[in-house]
Structure formats: structure tokens, C-alpha cells
Amino acid sequence: TAIDPVTTLDHQHEWQDELRHSESEHEFQLQDLIHRQKAAVVSARIERRKPLPQIEAFAGLNQFNERGSDRTIEDERRESVLGLRLKMHLGDFWESRRQSESALIDASALQMIIDHNRQEIESHIVTEMNELTFLHSQVHSAQENVERAKKYYAITQSEYARGVKNSVDVVSASDRLLD
Predict the structure, then answer these.
(1) C-alpha torsion sign, points 108, 110, 114, 117
(2) HEC profile of 49-103
């Protein structure tokens, strides 16, 4: 009797196109780190601007001069003033610079982590695609083996019918086909 196992191993060949992806599809996994990195950069910029000097403008018209040592007439003690006053705290400058550099280092470290995570994701995907390609090739190899076993079984059946092979050969060929 003829044994007819599954002759084809049906499977998709378009799987590679369906599994192709873009980097943006995995960007959601990095959003927290990206936002923290951007916040660190902004923090560094803010810290760098903190120690800027404070400039105050002042003016006065016909101000009465209160100097006690001046013995001039009271009307002559009036004066007008126009000027700028510049204030800067050096301690704040150094502290702000240190904090700014620290925030930049944090931002740089977060960027390295983001880059590393992107590489891990990409590496994982490449590995998975390679494994799928290998499994796909195994499916084709198995299909070829089934075809060879069917041919061998058919040849063995034909030779048995002619009397060239015995029943043990036919059983062996059917076992090969079923395995």
C-alpha cells in the first residue's frame, strides 16, 4: 500500500519583509532615558547661566547731597546722577560651573546608555532574524528530505513489484519516509 505523508511543509516566504522594522518602532523603549538626557542638558545650560553678573541701572535728578563735611550752600548741594552697578558673586560662579559640568557629565552618561540600549535592541533583532533564517533553511532541508524519501519509497515499491527488492526493504523505505 502507498503511504502518502504530508508532501510539503507549507510556510510563508515573505516573513522577512513582514518583520523588517525601523529604529523608530523601538524608540518607545528608550523614551524615559531620552527625556532624562534632555533634562540634564537643559539643567546644565541653566546652571551655566546662573552666575551671570547682575547689572543695575540707576539715575537721579537734582538729588540732595547729605554730606555733612561739605559747607556749601544747600542749593548748591543738589546733584544729578546716572550710572550702572555690576554685581557678581564669585562663589556662585564656581559652584554653578561645577554643577553645570556635573549635569553635562550626567547627560553624556545617559547618552551612552541610550546608545548601548539601541545597540542591544538592534543586536537582539539581528540575532532573532538570523535564527529565523536558519529555521527557514531547516524547513526547506526537511522538505527536500521528505521528497528524497518519497522517491526512494517509490523506487523501492517499483523494485519490489519487479521482484528485485524484498519486503524488508519496503518496510525500511516506509520507515524512512515516515521519519
Answers:
(1) positive
(2) HCCCCEEEEEEEEEEECCCCCCCCCHHHHEEEEEEEEEECCHHHHHHHHHHHHHH
> Cα–Cα distance between 74 and 65 in angstroms, integer?
9
Closest CA to 80 of 57, 61, 97: 61
**Half-sphere exposure for 63 (CA within 13 Å, toward CB):** 11
- The tens-digit pLDDT sequence of the chain (179 residues) is 444 444 455 666 676 766 666 666 778 888 889 999 999 999 988 888 777 778 888 887 776 666 555 555 666 666 777 888 888 777 777 888 888 899 999 999 999 999 999 899 888 888 888 898 898 889 888 888 888 888 888 888 888 788 777 788 788 888 777 77
Q: Residue holding cell 508532501?
A: 7
Q: What share of the chain is helix, strand, coil (3-state, %, to 5)?
A: 70, 10, 20
**What sign for the dihedral angle of Cα 149, 153, 158, 159?**
positive
DSSP calls for 18-42: HH---GGGGGGGGHHHHHHHHHHHH
Which class for 129: exposed (0-12), middle (13-18), buried (19 or more C-beta within 10 A)?
middle
pTM listed for this prediction = 0.56
Q: How many helices (H) and strands (E) does the chain have?
A: 4, 2
